[in-house]
C-alpha cells in the first residue's frame, strides 16, 4: 500500500527479529477483502509504503534466541492475528484485542505483512503452528483468516443444536461461517447471497436454503420461510453499512447477531428500531476479530486432517509468482462473479 487508493511495489531491507520472533518466507499468500477496505476505502486511515498481506503459510528461515519450539525449516500456518499473549486483554480472554482495539491485527495494519519475500512473526512459539503434511500451503492459507473468522462468527452466534441460522454474505468469510454453523450443530442454515460459485460451495458446506437479497428484503424472506418467526442466530459476513438492518429483521428473541463484517465506511451503523424491539427485543449484537495463535491454528488444521471440512473449496484462482500478487489483490477488489478466493502459491 503506497497510500490510500494506491498499490505498488516497494523495496525494503530484510526485517530484523526480536528474541521471541521468527523470520519467514511465504509459501502461500492470499489477499483479503479487508485489504480492499484498508487500501481503497482508507478504512483504518492513511498508511505509507505498508506491506500488505495477513494470510500466509510460510517457511521459517531464522528464529530469535528465546524461541524454543519453532525451528528453521519448519513450515507453518501464520495466523492473520498474532496476539501479544502476555497482555492484559489476552489474559482476560480477548487475545485479538491486545494492546488496543484490534491490536492483535498487526500484519497489514501497523506492521509490514506477508506480501513480501520475507516477513516476521512476533511470539513465534505462541503464534505459529506446524503445517501438517497432509495440508498444502494453499489450503492452509484458507485457515488462517477465512476459516478462523467464519468459524468465530458461528461460535459467537450461540447456535442451539438443531437451531436455525442465517448467514448474510457468502464470500469466503460467510462460506466459512456456514461450515462453522454446521459443525456447531445448526439444523437449518440460510445462505444469503447470489454469486453462483458461492452458492455451490454454500450448499457443499452445509447451507439448506439459499436466499437472494436481490429478490427482496432479506428479513421478510427469512421471516416468511420461518413462519414469521425469524432465525435463532444471524451471522453477518458481508454487505454495506445498512446490513445490520437485514440482520436484526431476520432475528427472533434470543438471537445473537454475530457480526464478522468489516464496516469500511461511514461514521455510524444503523440498527432498525422497531425490529429491535425499541432496544428491548432480546436480540444481541456480538462483534469479534478473527482469533489467532498457535492453538487456534492447530484446531483448524484438525478439522481438515480428520475430514470435517475442505478448505480448497474456497480457492477459485491460483497464481504461482510473487509478481502475481498485484493481480490477485485487484481480483479481490473487483470481485468478478467467478471469484471466491485467489491464492499465490510459492512453494508446495
Ligand atoms: P466478499 O466481498 O467476498 O463477500 C461478501 C459478500 O456479501 C459479497 O459477495 C457481496 O456481494 C455480498 N453482499 C453485499 N450486500 C449484501 C447484502 N445486503 N446481503 C447479503 N450479502 C451481501 O468478502 P469476504 O472476503 O467474504 O469478507 C467478508 C467481510 O469480512 C469483509 O468485510 C471482510 O473485510 C471481513 N473480514 C472480517 C474479519 C474479522 O476478523 N472480523 C476477518 C476477515 C475478513
Ligand atoms: Zn483478512
From TrEMBL:
Keywords: Metal-binding, Oxidoreductase, Zinc. GO terms for biological process: small molecule metabolic process. Residues 18-125 form the Alcohol dehydrogenase-like N-terminal domain. The keyword Cytoplasm does not apply. Residues 172-272 form the Alcohol dehydrogenase-like C-terminal domain. It is an enzyme of class 1 (oxidoreductase). Its cofactor is Zn(2+). Its EC number is 1.1.1.80. GO terms for molecular function: adenyl nucleotide binding; anion binding; isopropanol dehydrogenase (NADP+) activity; zinc ion binding. The keyword Cytoplasm does not apply. Belongs to the zinc-containing alcohol dehydrogenase family. This is NADP-dependent isopropanol dehydrogenase. It comes from Methanobrevibacter curvatus. The lineage of its organism: Archaea, Methanobacteriati, Methanobacteriota, Methanomada group, Methanobacteria.
